[in-house]
Design a protein that fits this description.
single chain, 151 residues, 0% strand, elongated, mainly alpha
Length: 151
């Protein structure tokens, strides 16, 4: 199935099993265990309080684990994107912009990955001069270069 052209409006990616099943289940689990912990505290039954404290701590630990497991590959992906974009900028940009690549912030490099080669020099200049954010860079892109292999 052919994907529609990528734009600022549709470039955000969702992983349905993660975003619409796993994440809500873990969030609901924290809420439920917190509710039962509160009920145990207010019922005055000390033997159940320790059990519910443990369940609540375990639920929170699972959320921390979930966010860590999801976050690590995204950090690796961002490092790869920064490297790819620095290499790309070395080939596309002319001096004096080429010598200013090191001034770009990591978030700017990540935003610039969507810009076509034709508009990249102008966007780099604007990003440096105007201190554009990742979102501002993405909004400024006219000819979108899709990145369909993101996590």
């Amino acid at each position: 199935m052919e994907q529609p052209p990528q734009t600022f409006a549709n470039h955000v990616r969702y992983d349905p099993p993660f975003h619409f099943f796993v994440l809500p289940v873990f969030a609901i689990n924290v809420i439920i265990t917190g509710y039962y912990l509160g009920a145990a505290i207010f019922s005055g039954q000390p033997k159940y309080i320790i059990f519910h404290v443990w369940l609540f701590i375990f639920a929170l630990a699972m959320v921390v684990l979930l966010t860590s497991v999801r976050g690590y590959p995204i950090k690796v992906q961002d490092r790869i994107i920064r490297l790819e974009e620095r290499l790309r900028l070395m080939t596309v940009l002319q001096e004096p912009l080429r010598s200013r690549i090191g001034e770009l912030q990591d978030t700017q490099l990540i935003g610039l990955r969507f810009a076509s080669d034709e508009e990249l020099p102008g966007l780099v200049q604007r990003a440096l001069d105007e201190k554009l954010s990742r979102i501002a860079i993405k909004k400024a892109i006219v000819k979108w270069r899709p990145d369909n292999s993101r996590i």
